[in-house]
Amino acid sequence: MEKVTRQAVWSMRKPVRSWRACVLLAVSVGLCSPAYPEADFFDGTVYTSCGAVQGSALPHTPGVWAFRGLRYAAPPIGSLRWKPPESPACSPRSRIIASHNGQVCTQKNPIVTIYGKRYGFTNPLVLVQRLSYFFFLCSIALFGCGYLVCKCGSEPHKEYLKLKFIEDSGTDRLLHGAIQPVRSSRLPRIKQLLCFMAWLALVVSVMLLYFSHSHRIYLGSVLGGEDCLFLNIYAHQRTLASNSAPVPVMFFVHGGDLTIGAGADIGPGALYGGSWALAAEGRAIAVQINYRLNVFGFLYLEDLNGTSVFGNSTNLGILDQMAALRWVRDHIAEFGGNPNLVTIYGQSSGGTSIAALLTSPLARGLFHRAFSMSASPRIDATPKQAAAAWRRYLLPLIPECLNKWHFNELRECLFSMPAERLVLAMPAKFSDPDWMNGLPLTKSGSGDPVIYLIVADGHVIPSNVSEVLSEGDPTLPAVPTVFGNVREECDLDLKEVRAQNMFDNAAWPLTQTQVMQWGVQLTGEMEFGKRVWNLYKPNITQGEDVPSDPDASTSPVRQRWSQLTSDIRMICGNIYNAKQLSQGQSAPVYSYLFTHRPQAPVYSHLNGWPRWVCQDSSQYAFHMWDIILLFNRTAGFHNTDPGLQYVFTPLDFAVADRFRAAVLEFAETGRISWWTAMEPNKYSVCHIDLHVKCDGLLKKEECDLFERYGVSYANWIVN
């Protein structure tokens, strides 16, 4: 694509011909113009080599403009399904209205993926509609009953005849004709009750129908479509001014187990919201992207002869991320960004993607800093392992293709399947096992069946990521990097932990006896359980009763369980990868542990749903807590968030602002002045709270223990 000089459209006035008018105009400009007068005239249009892009101002973030739904690759539909991304069409004369998010990538409804396993439903829209139909039928039945009651009670009966006496001159006399039929008061009351219940059922039915209509984009079993390779840009109007210096670019990769989520800032799939807080000060431009997920982004199959069904189809979601980075390299200068200062960052499986990009020779030169948050630390599956898992767990749910063994037959069969059918066939329990709900049971791994999504295929990712990081391969990106976690990654609702039986979850609820039993079960040695208990025993003071409910929001049992599970599953793995990378490159590598916790229980629910639907609670530094503070929740614009029943405190604001300042300094300079980097012979992990302290001992004893007993690497989370 041919680049052009960045321009902006400014409002123009006719030349002022009168000297009096000139004086008045000068006075008015002097009195009314803000600190950045040129920004006042920016009308939201940026000219690029692919046409004029019209953005929209964010009403809740003064000065920030959003450019949504920009296509960075050709639609991966038709013959391009399961193909690497291709460049999009580009016309310098086109005009793009970039006011709405692009379509999210095909995925199961997050409410089905996250809560369907727990409550056993697959289509919330059908569920809500059936409830509305049920209440509508109830209302009809109740109205019918009321009608029958009224009809049956319309004629007076003998048993309802009463003598009516009239008092006359102090003497009770039976008057002629005083016998009057008086209808019993029972029937009107029954009729009123039935009518009330009928109207109530009718109102509930109408409300449910209205809810299903207004939330229809959230209620289907499948969201989005295959034409989904879009990105959003958020930039301050000072950055967009033609005379401004280019600023760093913050490139966000969303999480969601590589199966759900979106780069959208609102609507279905928008698990994270918008990243515009990083652009609010004018120090950076924020970018967030969609990329292919689940069966469309990571499917890999082989036939009986070991021939790939779709050719080189591994890691398509990672290749999409690289395509978006190439688009940013070619076009971000037109929006005021510096293409030579691109920081990639992501949380959860987005952080896993960052680790994958760090080890890919194909990504060299596309970014200049990397920030991985709460990543799955293990990426080592081979294409053979991935192909076997996909065939075992996916194809039985597509019986039409199950017995197609030649690659041509299987390819034609899968290409003929509609997107909805393919994504619904993908079993969430195999792509996203319940890693966090139980401790490992064997040294060789938890034994959970899993579909491997990111694959060490020798092309996109050379081999085992943890090994590649330390090799110092000159073809790799080798950029300043941060690996981080929150302290209680597993502090989610523990209903599923309690639901598992004692054999599968021997250490719960973290008593000394149960920890010892689990230690022997895992390693065969009593000493391991003793060491674990000494490191993780709940902080219960002498004389204090053990909580009757270990899952209570303030329970020390819950906190220590979360820390043990988080350490062995995620945190130690990411610290290890940081140590490995520090040996393989000279650029600085940092490791952090986010220890600041909410000041009250946080009740979270899915975007687009009422607060009482699908609510989970967390008390400590839970998974996503650091990204919540980094993003718009505490950027000075919102004290409460519609997705969280939590009021952010001044302490939260202070921690968030300091953390955001560290991230922006890292984007600008590649270093964080008040953090200490990890070095080959110097261990350092920084804990993030109101005050930051980089410690040579933080989590060292715990991680060394797991590594010494050989229970560490094989039990790290994948995907």
Describe this protein's structure:
This protein has 719 residues and is α/β, with parallel strands linked by helices. It folds into two domains: 1-106 and 225-299 and 313-379 and 458-719, Alpha/Beta hydrolase fold, catalytic domain (Rossmann fold); 124-219. The strands form six sheets. Strands 4-5-13-15-14-16-17-18-19-24-25 form an eleven-stranded mixed sheet, with helices on both faces. Strand 24 and strand 25 (693-695) form a beta hairpin. The protein is globular, with a radius of gyration of 31 Å. Residues 1-40, 156-180 and 634-638 have low confidence and may be disordered.
Strand order within the widest beta sheet: 4-5-13-15-14-16-17-18-19-24-25
Rounded to the nearest angstrom, the distance between the terminal CA atoms is 34 Å
Just name the CATH architecture of the largest domain.
Answer: 3-Layer(aba) Sandwich
CATH homologous superfamily of the largest domain, by name?
Alpha/Beta hydrolase fold, catalytic domain
- Overall structural domain count: 2
| Broad structural category | alpha/beta
CATH topology tier name of the largest domain: Rossmann fold
Helix fraction by DSSP (H/I, runs of at least 4): 25-40%
Mean pLDDT: 82
Main beta-sheet annotation: 11 strands, mixed
Oligomeric assembly? single chain
Shape: globular
CATH class of the largest domain: Alpha Beta
